[in-house]
Specification:
This protein is α/β, with parallel strands linked by helices. The protein is built from 9 helices and 15 strands. The strands form 3 sheets. Strands 3, 4, 5, 6, 7, 14 and 15 form a 7-stranded mixed sheet that branches. A 6-stranded parallel sheet has the order 10-9-8-11-12-13, with helices on both faces. Strands 1-2 form a two-stranded antiparallel sheet. Helix 1 (about 45-50) packs across helix 9 (about 305-315) and helix 2 (about 120-140) crosses helix 7. The protein is globular, with a radius of gyration of 20 Å.
Length: about 325
């Protein structure tokens, strides 16, 4: 038997999460079984565990949109017992059982080979959050962005995506403006490489269709008014990568930034990226991530602690990354 967090739904449509013991036969269909070593707790996981968002699409379900570990059984020729793997996206933790368990069964095409120079724990310190940050950076640079273009705004900078985005951008020579609602995190963000701290209140309310041009590009994990204002204050021919919706799914904007300044809005879908794009993102993460900074922004918790930590995360009491040791 193995331990897992299992989310069920009551008759009155409430979600309940509990640490549960399961049999391998309980696992869903898939052609590869993985012994999970580490997982993470992301914003989406917290919504699913607490029931505060419609993340989980079937019950019962093991949450966790990330996992890293070792192949135990495989019915596919590309994967052998002992292979070090990670999975992020593909609907795990939403419609298919995810990583907050000691075992997982998944489809072979969802697996990514763990880079040789990343441990499973380091990979989960990066997780979907860091992977999404790298996809955003790659998308911006494919458009032509370089440090010479000017400042880059990162919204939700104290969160998982934002923290890694600040770190990656600064290491590549960009001047980063970090927007956060937690001014007490200023020293933390500056240690990651932020040159300037912006209070999120400057962006989070209704704004003008077009504002003063302040930055060349944006990585936004917040959405709603924040994304609209970020676009409205982007320089001519700048770029905005939208990769999250912490404030909301709405986009209360006008076409002014796109027509009058030629701003480009890039949507970042981290869930169903082709394997070649995943391999590129994880290769670059392994090469470019600062291991010491990564460790400094990571907090380790046990599997049982993930249930309470989900509420902390949604309450804005967590900065950086939460990694889950599923075996304690």
């Amino acid at each position: 038997m193995f331990q897992a967090i299992l989310v069920n739904q009551t008759e009155d449509q409430r979600s309940t999460a509990a640490l549960t013991r399961l049999e391998p036969s309980d696992l869903p269909e898939g052609d590869v079984r993985v012994r999970v070593e580490w997982s993470t707790l992301n914003y989406k996981d917290a919504l699913g565990i607490t029931g505060q968002g419609p993340v989980i699409r079937r019950f019962p379900l093991v949450p966790g949109i990330d996992l890293a570990g070792m192949v135990e059984e495989s019915d596919h020729g590309d994967w052998q017992p002992g292979d070090r793997v990670l999975v992020n996206g593909w609907g795990i933790g939403e419609g298919h059982w995810g990583g907050l368990a000691q075992q997982a069964r998944v489809r072979s095409e969802w697996l990514t080979r763990l880079p040789d120079d990343l441990s499973p724990r380091q990979a989960m310190s990066i997780g979907t959050a860091g992977y999404t940050a790298m996809l955003s950076l790659i998308a911006l640079e494919r458009q032509g962005l370089t440090p010479a273009h000017g400042d880059v705004l990162v919204t939700g900078a104290s969160g998982g995506v934002g923290s890694v985005a600040v770190m990656l951008l600064a290491k590549r020579g960009y001047r980063v403006i970090a927007a956060t609602g937690r001014t007490e995190e200023a020293d933390y963000l500056k240690a990651l490489g932020a040159a300037e701290i912006l209070h999120r209140d400057e962006l989070s309310g209704p704004g003008k269709p077009l504002g003063k041009a302040r930055w060349a590009a944006v990585i936004d994990s917040v959405g709603s008014h924040t994304l609209a204002n970020a676009c409205a204050q982007t320089q001519e021919d700048g770029w905005v990568a939208a990769c999250g919706l912490a404030q909301g799914m709405d986009f209360p904007a006008t076409v002014a930034p796109f027509i009058l300044r030629g701003v480009t809005l890039l949507g970042i879908n981290s869930v169903t990226r082709p394997q070649a794009e995943r391999d590129e993102a994880w290769r670059r993460l392994a090469e470019e991530i600062d291991r010491n900074m990564l460790e400094g922004m990571t907090r380790e918790i046990a599997l049982l602690e993930a249930i309470d930590a989900a509420s902390e995360l949604l309450a804005g009491k967590v900065h950086g990354r939460l990694v889950v040791d599923v075996n304690r």
